[in-house]
Amino acid sequence: MALSAVRAGVAPINWAAALMFVLTSVVAVTVIPWYGITHGYHAAAWIVFTLFLGANGMAITCGYHRLFAHCTYEAHPILKVAYLFFGAMALQNSALNWAAAHRVHHRFIDDPERDPYCARRGFWFSHIGWMLRSYPSGEPDFSTVRDLQRDPLVMWQHNHYLLVALSTNFGLPLLVGYLIGDVWGVFLLAGVLRLVASHHFTFFINSLAHMWGSQPYTDENTARDNPVVALLTYGEGYHNFHHMFAHDYRNGLRWWQWDPSKWFISSMRVLGLTRNLKRVPWFRIQRALLDNQFQRAERRLASLPGRAQLEQLRARIAEEYDAFSKAVAEWAHLREQWLEDTKRAMVERWEQSNLQSRLRELEYGLRLQYRRMRVLQAQLG
Question: Does the residue 381 lie in any domain?
Fold first, then answer.
């Protein structure tokens, strides 16, 4: 289908998504305020709303995004089940579908024909419009998630997604509301309002975080670092870093940057629920920062009138950049050598340990044989 036809609205309406977004939004702006004015909401209902909102958000960012879509760490099955359970409650499709679309987004970022939620097609499209119609770019490409198709937990959630999503969005809020004695209050806040807020907070990553913010690591795509979006999305707003280093389990690199997802994943390692957390080497991050700054300086200098001083400055910047690049290359080479030497030493220690274990086994066997011989000699003598 031609892009012009898609933009003209020829793509068929996705009625399931459209009705869900419309109905939940209407309830959120009409019924929920009316009920609050006429009946009021108990503090417990607000607490449940906050807990469910947090569980949904963390399941999406720590589970759907950083674990399933980018494989930035490994998780215990118990943690995977929690991600898949609360991720289904967020009503953003199964983890398999979500990861498939997201991997395509990274592969074809800003391509209007292939990026499922391309920001260059406008705020509305990247925020929610891409889900309201069945655009060709939104069709899941399961060839990108063959690794997830081998995960029985992911496939179980995918095959039973509708059941899990409906039971968590209706059954769970109603059950908790019944237990605390406020069925409708909990359902409206922890069921409907939580879902609407969770949706739009997540969608801000696709829209605002591609339109508003800084680009310290690269300006070759629309992704931006946005601390406001990070605050609403448990750290996902540091999107420029993420698109540059998608296989790092962190989004907020600095200690002061708000990234509770990073802190959660790291803390779960202490409990044995996560392992093999992937981090981009420091020198690669610094190289990206310098590359970006150098390219911007080159463009600024090129736009200024040609003067001898500017040419000297341009040459000086180029020399400094070249020196830094050589230093980084040497550092990387030495680091690889160090890793190889460490690996070789570990293998040698392992072989030595195996040899020592074998010697101990032989010594033990010799002692047993010696004792048996002494027993036989005693019987003969």
Answer: no
pLDDT in tens, 226-247: 999 999 999 999 999 999 999 9
pLDDT in tens, 197-225: 999 999 999 999 999 999 999 999 999 99
CA dihedral sign of residues 93, 94, 95, 98? negative
- 151 and 254 Cβ atoms separated by less than 8 Å: no
312 shares its domain with 214: no
Residue 321's domain comprises 283-365
What 236-239 contacts at long range (C-beta under 8 Å, 24+ apart), as own/partner pairs, is: 236/61, 236/65, 236/202, 236/205, 236/209, 236/261, 237/204, 237/205, 237/209, 237/213, 239/205, 239/209, 239/210, 239/213
Q: Give the chain's domain count.
A: 2
pLDDT tens, position by position, 261-283: 999 999 999 999 999 999 998 87
